[in-house]
Amino acid sequence: MANVMEIYQLLPKTNCKECGKSTCMAFAVDLLARKVKVDDCIPLVNEEKYKDNYEKLSEIIAPVGDVTETGLIVHDDKCIGCGNCVVACPVNVANDPQGAGSGKAPTSDKVIFKVEDGVVKARNVEECRRFGENKILCVACIDTCPTKAIEFV
Amino acid sequence: MTEYYVCPGCALLCDDIEVEIEDGKVTKVNSACRKGVARMKGCSDPMECTVDDEKTDVDAAITKAADILREAKDPLIFGHGNSSSQAQQLSIDIAKRTGAYLDDTSSFCQGPIIEAILQDKLKTCTLDDIRHKADVIVFWGADPSNSHPRHLSRYSYFPRGNERQRGWEEDRTAIAIDIRKSDTAEICGQSNFYRIPMAADAEFMEALVSALSGKVPKTSFDFDKKKILQLANVLKKAKFGVICVGLGLVYSLDELEPLFILMDKLNEVSSFHLLPMVGQYNMRGFNQNLFDKTGYINRVKFDGEDNSVKHGADFSVIESLRNRSVDAALIIGSDPLSSLPLSVARYLAEIPLITIDPCRNLTATKSTVTIPCALSGVEAGGTAMRMDGVEVELKKVIDTDNLTDEEILRRIKEAI
Q: From the list B29, B150, B184, which residue is nearest A83 (CB)?
């Protein structure tokens, strides 16, 4: 996963403010959180000398269809549908111990992860331990993914 | 109540698959991994029924296939890993009647391990035992994250079981022994990954046995002794251990003796079981069926006249093709022209060849007769045997116009 400095190094670093942010660093932070898009940096897109950087950055910041409210992203192209996250997620286990928690197909509607058509889909994200007031930085789904298909931003 | 189906994608035979059907086609498959989804959604390139590259009907193709087998002196019947047990039984009958060489993919896969298990030389257990009891799981030369994607999540590492209520976090230890850092090794973590040089498995086993006996483990490749002792300690403390044997280990061992010694030693100090990581969904079923009938699991040659059975490496699919000792071949649900070395498989294209498969493959393009069959587990039911030897009933999901491989083989048998 990219870090903010890596992203910053690839930006023009001119603090031109064309994107509406006060500095390139601020843009880098928002880019990492997927609040802005790579294309929002106008000089990077338009100026020939930044072409390489633009391409690199577009690669790092994989386009994301919909980031969930907890910042959870599942990269469909990487996911192999093994279901490790489905079984390892503590919320899934608590809500569906006989189904998802025991390695079988989820039997409850309250699970966060479910494999559909070979790719894991996130739902009920409000149940995620990373959500809400008492959130904790749980990484059960990231650690157990063999292909690094899950990411939090 | 949701209707669950069985996935024929690999020998895990996951039985918790939900499907959505539209216009007689499977449109959505839930809970299955990518491999399973691809299998259950069917062929992208279905095979046609042909004789000498010309389209024909099934009856003509079956008659021609029976003629080829009847006229051949030493036909070869090969494949079987993707057929139901019922079809496999018929295949054995046809081999008996025609005096054929009979083999399956286990011949160059998990054959030796399954043979040892069926002969009670190795202690084994079921996948459900693993889920409920296993606390130390060793993946040796195996990478289930790629070969059996749901192995870890359904049985071996992540799920909660009766005696393993806290699952992977506290109750289980997964260990990977491999020549490269596989995706499975990644999950096991750096401290539980043992990277060994190529073909050094036997030596590593020897060192491990020394460590288990309290001696200093020495290896010619200078493996960190502390790390081996550490591994020995984990294995010793196991209450219910499992070694999942992958092809990496099978190919690396010239003979199984080092594995027997290691298993004996492990069972002296703790309790260890062995699980073969079978690939095709019913390969183990074929081994079992043939074992029940002949006492051998693969590589047999029937004698047409006195019904005697010969067994040995010379009768394997590889050797029989290399020695050009077969004069016709029937391939069921397999693609030897793609999977075998070309120098060996090339001979198949020179002899009358019959392919029974739902999908077009390279072998089919070189075949004299091709007969499309129903995709078992999706378009047809039947029985199959999981990698751990448990029988699972496959369920039919959708209808098809194609005959099942069982029906095709029955009609070929009758025609002969």
A: B150
Chain length of chain B: 416
* Final residue before a domain boundary, out of B243, B259, B276: B276
- Contact partners, residue B162, CB within 8 Å, separation at least 6: B132, B133
In this predicted structure, the answer to whether residue A1 has a pLDDT above a threshold of 80 is no
Q: Residue A19: its pLDDT value, please?
A: 87
In what helix (H) or strand (E) does residue A20 lie, and over which residues does it extend?
A: none
Band of residue B158 on the pLDDT scale cut at 50, 70, 90: very high
CB contact under 8 A, B160 and A101: yes
Residue A128 confidence (pLDDT): 86
Count the Cβ atoms, other than its own, within 10 Å of residue A42: 12
Pair (B116, B167) in one structural domain: yes
Give the Cβ contact number of residue B319 at 10 Å.
17
Question: Vertex A28, ends A27 and A29: CA angle to 5°?
Answer: 90
The domain of B177 spans 111-276
B34–A119: do the CB atoms touch at under 8 Å? yes
Task: Give chain A's domains with CATH numbers.
Answer: 4-60 (1.10.15.40), 72-152 (3.30.70)
Which residues from A are below 8 Å from B when comparing CB atoms? 79-84, 86-88, 93, 97, 101-107, 114-119, 144, 146-147
Which CATH number is B270's domain given?
3.40.228.10
- Rounded distance, CA B95 to CA B101, Å? 7
Examine the pLDDT at B288 and tell me if it is beyond 90.
yes
What is the tally of structural domains in chain B?
Answer: 2
Name which of A107, A117, A145 to mutate to probe chain B: the one with the most chain B Cβ atoms within 10 A of its Cβ.
A117
pLDDT tens across B322-346, in order? 999 999 999 999 999 998 998 998 8
Predicted TM-score of the model (pTM) = 0.86
Residue type, B119: Q
Best probe of the A interface among B37, B126, B153, by most A CBs < 10 A, is B153
Specify the range with the lowest mean pLDDT, choosing from A65-79, B22-36, B110-124, B303-317. Answer: A65-79
Taking an 8 Å cut-off on Cβ atoms, the answer to whether B187 and A146 are in contact is yes
